[in-house]
Amino acid sequence: MQITKAEATPIELKLKRPVQMAGLPLITSITAIFVRLETRQGQSAWGCTVAHPSLTLETPAQALQACQTCAAQVVDLHPLNIEYSLARLSPFTRQSPCALCTFDLALHDLLCLATGLPLYRLLGGYRDRIQTSITIPITPLEESLALAQERASQGFQILKIKGGLDAEQDVQRVRAIHQAFPRLILRLDADGGYTVQQALDVARALHNELETLEQPTPADDLNALCQVSRLSPLPVLADQSALSPASAIQIAANHCAHGFSIKLAACGGLQAARQMDAIARAARLSMMVSCLIEPAMLVAAGLSLALSSPNVQYGDLDGHLHLDQDPSLPGFVLREGWLIATDAPGLGYSVNLG
Question: Cβ neighbours of residue 14 under 8 Å, at least 6 residues apart?
Fold first, then answer.
């Protein structure tokens, strides 16, 4: 098998609703970059990433340039030697984990097509379905309740409530949603917006209403995260603080969190994410496989990772549901808040870039 062509295509995708997150400007669109590999044998494989300066710390221009550089290099590599190929591409993506993710997924997709296996089975095949949360963005109380009602009526049983701008209002919103929908599982993601004291106050006030508290304190302040994790009555997950295997080791070694939330585009793809999962398993930390606002193809890859490992306790794979006119269609099934894999070879998707 030989790669004969590689091309990278950026597409700006609008959101169905603007999304507000702590410390970030209002998000109305994201840029997705799709990479297509063609082989001499007539096979086509795809990879995908997203770039947004607020979400990934990379601009679309930076990610696209790195993808184009890798596209010129990958035609000289053996597509089935994934470790070697990614090692050869890594010098061109040191400042762009988003770009590395794209080629990581495309190479895994090609390997799956060669073997005839779906990605989740190739990675381990621990299960074929997982429950996902769906996000309630930062909105006024009445709008949050309306969104919770809408998601509950669609069959979702887990809500991930965004917070971090105002701790007291976050407590009020969570309590109101819990009172209105007491059977739903609630998670709170502060996106680094709290001080240590605010995080502990929120955790203590909501310990009967919440399942987890995600990234309560600023991403670059591991000492603050450690303090919250030691004293919180709730499990604390590191998200923006855990963007690589190196940061995962630091968090695990210093007991800074009870688990990690991993996003493929942020950490650099499946290779890095599986290393982080191994670190979490060795340290007896839980894992959440999460996502950015991203196309279904990228969500499908995250789902395959989540299904492959017994250590993944939490699923948060709803990013594609926030996009208007996603050019990728998922091969997985979403039913009553459960994501269910199919046995189609590869990542499980179809793509129409028009």
Answer: 28, 29, 323, 324, 325
For 280-299, what is the mean pLDDT?
A: 96
Distance of CA 219 to the CA centre of its chain: 16
Burial code (b: 16+ CB inside 10 Å, e: under 16) for 69-106 equals bbbeebeebebeebeebbeebeebbeebbbbbbbbbbb
* CATH class of the domain at 3-116: alpha beta
- Under 8 Å between Cβ of 319 and 347: no
- 312/292 Cα distance (integer angstroms): 18
Helix (H, G, I), strand (E, B) or coil at 201: helix
Q: Is residue 1 predicted with pLDDT exceeding 80? A: no
Strand, helix or coil for residue 4: strand
Q: Output the CA–CA distances (angstroms, integers) from residue 47 to 43, 66, 178, in the order listed.
A: 14, 14, 39
Backbone angles phi, psi at 152, to 5 degrees: -65, -40
Does domain 121-351 correspond to CATH entry 3.40.50.920? no
Query: According to the model, what pLDDT value does residue 99 have?
Result: 96
Looking at per-residue confidence, does 24 or 123 come out higher?
123
Domain ranges in the chain with CATH number 3.30.390.10: 3-116
Closest among 210, 217, 220 to 191, alpha carbons compared: 217
pLDDT on residue 157 = 98
Q: Where in the chain is the domain with CATH 3.20.20.120?
A: 121-351
Residue 35's beta-bridge partner residues? 8, 47
pLDDT tens digits for range 23-56:
788 899 999 999 999 998 888 999 999 988 878 8
Q: Over range 155-164, report the average pLDDT.
A: 97
Structure tokens at 167: 């701790």
CA distances from 266 to 136, 141, 161, 281, 311 (A): 21, 30, 21, 20, 20
CB 107 within 8 A of CB 79: yes
First to last CA, the chain: 28
pLDDT tens digits, one per residue of 187-204: 999 999 999 999 999 999
Higher pLDDT, 57 or 306: 306
